[in-house]
TrEMBL record:
SUPFAM superfamilies referenced in this protein's UniProt entry, alphabetically: FMN-dependent nitroreductase-like
Originating organism: Pseudarthrobacter humi
Annotated protein name in UniProt: Nitroreductase family protein
Domain Nitroreductase: 294-462
Cross-referenced InterPro entries: Nitroreductase (IPR029479), Nitroreductase-like (IPR000415)
Amino acid sequence: MNVSTGSYQRVPGETSELGKTAPELWDQMTSLDPPAPVVVERIGSKDLSAAREIVEEAVFAMGPSGRRMVPSAGAIFPYAILVLCRYGAVQGNGRGTAPAATWGLFRLGANGSAVTRVPVPAAAAATLSQIIPLSTDLDQSYILTLTRPWLSMRKYGPRGYLYSQVDAAHAAVNILGTALQTVDAALHVDPSDLAARCILADYLPFHELHSVLVLRNRADRRGTFYFDVEIENTSAKKTPAFNFEAQAWSGLVDPLEANAVWVHAPGPEPVIATKQLESGQATLISDWRELSQKRKSAKAFSARKLTLAALDGVLESIGTPLPTNLTTGGQGSVELTVVLSHNASFSSAEEETLARRFSVRRIESPDHAGGIVKACMGQRHVAHAQAFLVLHSRRTDVIPSPETHSIRRVLFRAGAAAQLAYLGAARHGIGVFTVGGFDASAWKTYAQIGSDDEVLCLLALGSDVAKDSPRADQEEKATAHGE
């Protein structure tokens, strides 16, 4: 560097500090491999058609806010939805199909017509179907949710891993609830079968198998079930030296893949420990589809007071039993504490009624509103919320140990409870907002939980004010440094 002229004096072809010449660096920035030829096949599959219809309605369809049916931190949606099912090749005349005896793995896109086939060999796909939970029914098919943590981590840093897990839980639970409207289904969370992970890793690198929805007793479908499916090309590889996704995976995700304990016990139970549902009380299952279509994230709260019935209804909704492999109170359990703000105007009798059934705390602070905003990392609109739902778990359940850990199951429970809270809020006409960034120590104090607990998820409840502007986290640049 010539200080007097303020310019570099290197010769254009000189080797840089990175060990490469300027032309080599330019070529690295601009050289791209030509795309592989597009291969499209015509197939037929009633199972694929039924699964795509469920996923489209549960995840990809647009809700009243003009966004997807499920929320996601920063509107990133860091996961992929795939279907493992039988299919048949369409015959030459295009009017029929060969017997649907071949197993295939298909990726579903946000566009209803976007279906691609992952080039997993038929034998490997069949093996995958045999080691998927409860693979005993000849008519079964499977919807797989796979997280891709890097998509969130590149914006939020390591915290993005937590977001990817919670976001995927929202999607998986909504797919389950939607599926239960028409078929017998059960959700298996955190499958840890090594063989299944290895098969998927070969064709879907840096994707983590989050959950498997088993679809049984498929209702007979009428209408079209033909697809023009593009076969994905997995030959394109990133330059290893700049594969930041690989570095993030090896540094954070891969260590969490080891020592997970898998259990097989599907049954309808609440995903977190709440009070028992009263006999005869309707659950969310009966009107899941309608509530899912109405669900939205609040962007602001008004001063209109919440009623006890509305708040109680949301808490009741969180206790909806779901057919999963997680048992209430088992390993990796999650607890709920309700924190009432100074904006809540319940009578002493109402608070006592609520406290008999739920863990309830009230914030007592001279600078209540300011403290809330600070504890939510400056998100000013939450100052007008009237109640906060703090989902927390024992530290020993989220910190990996040499023997075992249950962090993914814990985060699933938190995300599932949040999704049920969203649906309950839609039923009772109140606003709900998931607070992504928060001061965990402050919320431990507000919720009066011990130092051995970790705050997993925080939701704000209040009277919704409709606004068209997006939330701040959706406008931020995709950077983990806050520039």
